[in-house]
C-alpha cells in the first residue's frame, strides 16, 4: 500500500513538472532522423524562430553532407503548457559523394526548397527541448530531382536562455 501511494505521489509530481513547461530563447542539439544533423534553433520574436542544420548520411554506394536553414512560426497548444506546433519553410544544399560510377547521376550538388511542420516541447525543470517534424523537400536540381517527402526528424536540444 505504501509503495502504491509513493508511486502515485511521484507520478503526480512528474505530471506537474511536465505541465509547467516554459519557453526558451535558443537551443542546440541533434536531429535524429533523415539525415542525422546538428541543430541550432534561435527565436527571433515570440513566435518566430530560425533553425540551422548541418547533416550527414551515408549508404553503400553514396553519401551526402547537407546545410540547411528554416524559418518557423510557432503556435501554442493551449491544453499543454510548453507544447507548440509550428510550420514554415527553408532551403537546403546537399553535397553528394559517389562510391560507384554506376550510381552517379551526373551531379554532386542538389538544392532543395522545403516546407516544415512539427511539434515542439520545452520541459519546465530541465534545459531540454524535444521536437518532431516533417520536412517535404522539392529538389530543384541534381540527384533526387523533384519532390521528396521522406525528410524529418526527432530533435533533442539543450536550451540556452
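^ Assign residues to that structure.
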Amino acid at each position: 500500500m505504501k509503495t502504491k501511494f509513493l508511486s502515485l505521489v511521484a507520478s503526480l509530481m512528474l505530471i506537474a513538472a511536465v505541465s509547467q513547461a516554459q519557453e526558451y530563447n535558443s537551443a542546440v542539439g541533434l536531429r535524429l532522423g533523415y539525415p542525422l544533423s546538428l541543430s541550432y534553433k534561435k527565436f527571433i520574436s515570440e513566435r518566430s524562430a530560425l533553425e540551422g542544420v548541418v547533416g550527414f548520411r551515408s549508404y553503400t554506394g553514396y553519401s551526402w553532407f547537407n546545410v540547411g536553414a528554416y524559418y518557423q512560426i510557432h503556435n501554442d497548444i493551449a491544453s499543454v503548457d510548453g507544447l507548440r506546433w509550428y510550420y514554415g519553410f527553408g532551403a537546403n544544399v546537399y553535397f553528394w559523394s559517389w562510391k560507384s560510377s554506376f550510381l552517379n547521376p551526373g551531379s554532386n550538388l542538389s538544392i532543395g526548397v522545403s516546407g516544415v511542420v512539427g511539434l515542439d516541447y520545452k520541459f519546465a525543470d530541465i534545459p531540454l527541448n524535444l521536437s518532431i517534424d516533417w520536412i517535404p523537400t522539392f529538389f530543384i536540381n541534381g540527384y533526387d530531382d523533384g519532390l521528396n517527402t521522406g525528410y524529418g526528424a526527432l530533435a533533442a536540444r539543450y536550451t540556452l536562455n
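Residues 5-22 have pLDDT under 50 and may be disordered.
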